[in-house]
Amino acid sequence: MEIKSIKELDFLDICRICDGGSDIDQEALDQEMNGIVNEIMADYKHGRDIDNMNVFEQPDQEVVIEIINELLMICFPGYYREKEYRTRSVQAKLSVLIEDVMYDLRKQIEVALLYDPEYSDSKKIVRKRFAQKICMDFFRQIPKVREHLNTDIQATFDGDPAAENKDEIILAYPGLLATAIYRLAHELFLLKVPLLPRMMSEYAHKETGVDIHPGATIGKYFFIDHATGIVVGSTSIIGEHVKIYQGVTIGALSTKAGHAAHGVRRHPTIEDNVTLYSGASVLGGNTVIGEGSVIGGNAFVTRSVAPHSTVTVKTHEMILDADGKHPLEEKDLEQDATWFYVI
């Protein structure tokens, strides 16, 4: 028998090896494989949500990711490169790029409109025309998005002493990346585009660990530091000059109602100049964090806080000295006003 490398072994070779080198009953094997295939094919015929087989009635995830990356190039033209657009003129490259993204986005919006009851039964030409209008309206908002992003860069630079320069923030900070994708997705959300905004925000979630629903409203000068495990719910309202750290949740107080609460205001309002430190949870549609307030690490806030307040969590515990015998009094601990912030 000819000796083969492991890469050259086919399915039958492996079966023979596992069977002690003897030949297998090919007819019996074929029958068993056909039976398994038929069982799986029969499982697609139950009419469940999971049985949908029309791959052309959903937006293409790979194309959506490509659109995100190209939109980032448009927002930050000096920081994202595209090999396909070989030209010395940046203006010419951007012009071609914008037209290219418009075409791709229009096609994806057209497919997404199948999920809008108003257009689900419309003729393709009707959806195409409406998708074109939405696409144009979206691109008219790009200057506004870039204006907001510029303030986010400034807020990050002002708020993070570890930042060497603004180029570092644009190229390396996941918080800014998550914010940029949110701001783009939010504009599509405001234009009532189904599916696409959420696909964009969930891509950012996967890449950065920051989960900002595209329906949230976030003002200028938004700063996310140590961007991991952050959640901002769909009906959240966040003002300007707000700073949040890792592990912060701006969420709903209760999800017992499930989808029945869809469309109900259930997330907090965070007013201007508020800081939410690591692990803080602010919950509930009636909860308002007043302007200039500070929410300390691991605080669990479910009711409104007056402006210029400080919310902290005090942990009672026994603290021993070096020999482990004599407990220290609270007055022996050296603490300043920020001792509860672990960043």
Strand residue percentage: 5-15%
Q: How would you describe the shape?
A: globular
Number of helices: 9
* Total domain units: 2
Structural class: alpha/beta
Q: Which architecture of the largest domain per CATH?
A: Orthogonal Bundle
Q: Report the C-alpha radius of gyration, rounded.
A: 27 Å
Percent of residues in helical segments?
A: 25-40%
- Could you give me the name of the CATH homologous superfamily of the largest domain? serine acetyltransferase, domain 1
Residue-averaged pLDDT, rounded? 87
Terminal Cα span:
66 Å
What is the number of E strands? 14
- The level-1 CATH class of the largest domain: Mainly Alpha
**Main sheet strand line-up:** 1-4-7-10-13
Low-confidence stretches: 331-343
Strand and helix order: HHHHHHHHHEEEEEEEEEEEEEE
The CATH topology name of the largest domain reads serine acetyltransferase, domain 1
Main sheet makeup: 5 strands, parallel
